[in-house]
Design goal:
This protein is an alpha+beta fold. A hairpin with a 2-residue loop joins strand 6 and strand 7. The structure holds adenosine-5'-diphosphate (ADP), magnesium ion (MG) and zinc ion (ZN). Zinc ion binds next to loops.
Length: about 475
């Protein structure tokens, strides 16, 4: 049987506020356990939560950046469950009235544009962390993370393949970073994802029963977990069985998912409106004010790069992955006046060197003005593209500018006809047999002579001139 996968994702993104969502404790990563806590976030009886204004601003910003409707009035709800990392016995979340609803995000997979609906985005608090001692018979609880502001971004079941799911997550991450509401760092657990997946016979319009895989924390794992689920569910269906609606976990050492518990229903949580917090009421002016702080987003920037700089879609897509990368590009393109050449160097040599060291563009030892300076020297014929590779690596190592390196190392391109003719004469004299063969019709030997001349000039001879002059001299 041929199946189509139906996938919906729930993403938890940590908002990059300085303090927690309902108290003034610092949000910090990697601090000593239980040092960023107070009576509110450890759930002492009788305390009252006070909402962090910045968290509201950030979620509205996210809603606006993903085409959501911003509810002018929204409300918190208690989601009741017991777990040692949740001292209150309930999580403050949102249920019927989230801050944002009915949004969308566009992704491109295999050249196809697809629109993925966003059902809702709501605010909630994070729980603490249980630390299970290896070999011991006790567990410890660290509440530093309890009360950290999260937003949950729920997608419609619009995704159809693991590739689309990964692309959607990357797009979401890119948007959150552009608007500076979350660093969306998966490694730190600031961007986590629950995967909902079901299969249906290809062509069918109804949905099958889904499984939910909780808390997957890398793009690769999302891909692997989905691939595994597609295989697992297809086998059950092929054998005439029924997929059980349940919550599963992903084991990244074996690339498999396994059952954790039967799926909870909303009523299991006994949601009810949070009595300690007033509704969030937002004025149109506030929304407009936040809208004004949204920068040009990745999609808009990508199409502008294609229009303004004449870049291929792919280059534009790559160069707008982060705001910093795009800004670097625009500065170098402007200074050099050669946008496509800048793109080639950035996507080729620069990314190669940076990726090898896992560096971000902000840390590049070659600043945009230096890259532009080198590209100008190529354009003016001072250095050849080949020599430029050497100059580029030296710039990367030393941080010096191209002109200084070229001068120090005597790398200026030789465009003096007399000097090149002299080298050519020497090369021909040294290779009489090849010369005779060439004249007898072995034209492939032309490349050999070009190579010899370039080698003799230590790569500095102007390649165009070498070509022209060689053609003449070899046939004389
Ligand atoms: P819950 O909170 O219980 O997980 P929701 O109804 O809010 O339930 O759905 C959560 C996610 O599951 C959403 O992202 C939605 O798109 C996705 N989803 C719902 N039904 C299906 C289905 N049949 N197959 C795949 N995904 C689904
Ligand atoms: Mg869910
Ligand atoms: Zn606190």
């Amino acid at each position: 049987m041929n199946y189509e996968a139906v996938i919906g994702l729930e993403v938890h993104a940590q908002l990059q506020t300085n303090t927690k969502i309902f108290c003034s404790c610092e949000t910090a990563f990697g601090e000593e356990a239980n040092t960023r806590t107070c009576p509110v976030c450890i759930g002492m009886p009788g305390v009252l939560p006070v909402l962090n204004r910045k968290a509201v601003e950030y979620i509205i910003k996210t809603g606006l950046a993903t085409d959501c409707t911003i509810n002018r009035s929204s409300r918190f709800a208690r989601k009741n469950y017991f777990y040692p990392d949740l001292p209150k016995g309930y999580q403050i979340s949102q249920y019927e009235l989230p801050v944002c609803e009915h949004g969308k995000v566009e992704i491109v997979v295999d050249g196809q544009v697809r629109t993925i609906g966003i059902t809702r985005i709501h605010l909630e608090e994070d729980a603490g962390k249980n630390l299970h001692q290896s070999g011991g018979n006790s567990s410890l609880v660290d509440l530093n993370r309890a009360g950290t502001p999260l937003m949950e971004i729920v997608s419609e079941p619009d995704l159809r393949t693991p590739e689309e799911a990964t692309e959607y997550l990357k797009k979401l991450r890119s948007i959150l970073r552009y608007i500076e509401v979350s660093d969306a760092d998966m490694e730190k657990g600031n961007f986590r994802c629950d995967i909902n997946i079901s299969l249906r016979p290809a062509g069918s319009t109804t949905f099958g029963t889904r499984a939910e895989v909780k808390n997957v924390n890398s793009f690769k794992f999302v891909q692997k977990a989905l691939e595994y689920e597609i295989k697992r569910q297809a086998q059950i269906l092929d054998e005439g069985g029924k997929v059980v609606q349940e919550t599963r976990l992903f084991d990244s050492s074996k690339n498999v998912t396994f059952s954790m518990r039967s799926k909870e229903e909303a009523h299991d949580y006994r949601y009810f409106p949070e009595p300690d917090l007033v509704p969030i009421v937002t004025s149109q002016e506030t929304i407009d004010g936040i809208k004004a702080t949204i920068p040009e987003l990745p999609d808009a920037k990508r199409s502008r790069f294609v229009r303004t700089y004449g870049l291929p879609e792919y280059d534009a897509y790559m160069l707008t992955q982060t705001k910093a990368l795009a800004a670097y590009y625009e500065e170098a393109a402007g200074l050099s006046g050669q946008p496509k050449v800048v793109s080639n160097w950035m996507m080729g040599e620069l990314m190669r060197l940076m990726n090898a060291e896992n560096r971000e563009i902000e840390e590049s030892p070659i600043r945009p003005d230096k890259l532009a300076g080198m590209i100008k020297m190529i354009g003016e014929g001072t250095i050849s593209t080949k020599i430029a590779k050497t100059v580029f690596e030296e710039m990367y190592k030393s941080g010096k500018d191209a002109a200084t390196i070229v001068k120090e190392q005597g790398l200026t391109q030789v465009s003096d006809t007399g000097a090149i003719e002299k080298i050519i004469a020497e090369v021909i004299a040294a290779n009489p047999a090849q010369h005779a063969d060439y004249k007898a019709g072995k034209e492939k030997l032309f490349g050999f002579f070009v190579g010899q001349v370039m080698k003799a000039s230590k790569g500095k001879a102007n390649p165009d001139l070498v070509n022209d002059l060689l053609k003449k001299k070899l046939n004389e």
